[in-house]
Amino acid sequence: MSDNTSGSRFDPRYDPAFQPGYRPEADGRTAVRRPAAQPAMPPAPPAPGQDPVSTVPPVAPETQALDVEEAEPTARRVDPFLIALWAVSALFVVVGISLLSAMANRLDRLSTSGSNSISGSDYYLLQAYQTGAPLLIVLGLATATATLFFFVGRRIRA
Q1: How far apart are CA 83 and CA 101, in angstroms?
Q2: pTM exceeds 0.90, yes or no
Q3: Local structure of residue 6 (DSSP, 8 states)
Q4: 152 lies in a domain?
Q5: Which structural domain, as residue segments, surrounds residue 137?
Q6: Looking at the domain assignment, is residue 85 inside a domain?
């Protein structure tokens, strides 16, 4: 708070009512209480010989409801980023499974070729497949799960 010459403990730049420690009695102000809103009274039932429809006041033309044909349907807006997340998660899973399949085919070809040595490129390629394929599958499943949780959270808020 800034120092002031009047000795007040409140910042003079702001109204004291909005500062911590303010008491309206000390300032000479009284708290204003608003009366609670009264609930609306239900309409009286029609008299025994009176038509109930005649007691209803007519509705102004501008406040009447639109016809069913004129009303616009309320469609949910589709988020393109969420669709992209679903596509990316499916792509990660498919690429991971295809890498596992390619790794199995390459190992099968190397074991049936009769040679006991693996070339350097095959060795590094198999290591990359062995490391990358499970990571892609897990990443795709995690992305799909996170997107599903996002949809659930969005549904709860709506």
Answers
A1: 27
A2: no
A3: T
A4: yes
A5: 80-157
A6: yes
